[in-house]
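User: I'm preparing a small set of examples for a lab meeting where we compare how different chains pack in three dimensions. I only have the primary sequence for this one, and I'd like the structure in token form so I can line it up with the others. Please keep the answer compact; I'll paste it straight into my notes.
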Amino acid sequence: MITVKAPTVYVQEANILEQSGSRIAQLGQHVLIIAGESALKAVQPYLLPSLEAHQVKFHVQLFRGEVTTDQIDAFTQQAFGLNVDLIIGVGGGRVLDLSKAVAEQADLPVVTVPTIAATCAAWSALTVLYDDQGQAAGYRPLRRSPNLILADSCILANAPKRYLAAGIGDTLVKWHEFAVNLSGNSASLTLRNSVSTAKLALDILETHAIDVYESTDTTGSTPQFRDVADAIIVLAGLVGSISDGSLHAAIAHGLHDSLTKLPETHASLHGEKVAFGLFTQWILEGKAEAELHEQVNLLHKLNLPITLAQLGIQQQSQEAAARIAAGLQLREGSAAHLSFGVSTTQVTEAILQADRIGQTFIESCQSSESSTYTKEVSSL
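Assistant: Understood. Below is the structure token output for the 380-residue chain.
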């Protein structure tokens, strides 16, 4: 059996929130807006007046902390108490994941308004759960994707570049994570579909990601930015929208979940942890040195972590690597689809090797930059 879960409507336009009221009014007239503090400041001058202009009553509740089952229950009770008929989530992945889960638990439609292009959370029919300490606590599959996604490209383009880089990293992972499963599960139509969709996202990012990341444009109106944002939200979301229940080994995301068990990594974003997980996967795959150098160079240009220190792990790398490897949990039976080993010992060594390569790469870049600077000074 194949299931398909995708949003009813997705809109990405500059300044779309100024006209959002008419679309939202079709879904509900009494709204609970769940928002991050910075996200609310970004959308408040546009979203709230548009709701008022279309006589949509709203309540705003700020969300801080982790997406826990207790938080989902608390916000659900608030939705019941206010007797709202629609949930709107405004912010990054955690706010959007919370909003989706609350809407499903309250049996209400939901609108997602991403203010950063850091994940595909605005699209996916999934909520990532954590505990109160910020450690990964599993996933809650949802019955449906959001009813409406309003992605204001101007707001996305004005967000800190770090979030964009994290979204690029999280999306780069999709093809690499899914494609390695084909060797043991090539008969799965949905897996082949996911690999093809992820390849389109990968092509877009390899072509435009660096230029968009380094661009000073804040209008969000360039075709390159729109493509990159769509790759992060739409294509990455589509990768997981179609399923037949077959297993695949998600190594980079599994390593992300394990990394959350180390408190020193909590300042790192989801996409940053996933990017280092991908680097580790490349080592496990045994990628050739030239290809590995090219891939690591891409991560480095995006300021994504290629060492344990960049994740916040400053000391005892051997012990940390062993803990991360021991915490890697793949779905039972999925490792059989891989053409390489993922034992705890192999993963530990791959993490340490990635860390060593990353350190050497950074040192060589610094040495090259210093040499270039010296030559420029001496020529004056």
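A couple of notes for your slides: The chain has two domains: 3-158, 161-367. The CA atoms of residues 35 and 90 lie 5 Å apart.

User: Perfect, thanks.
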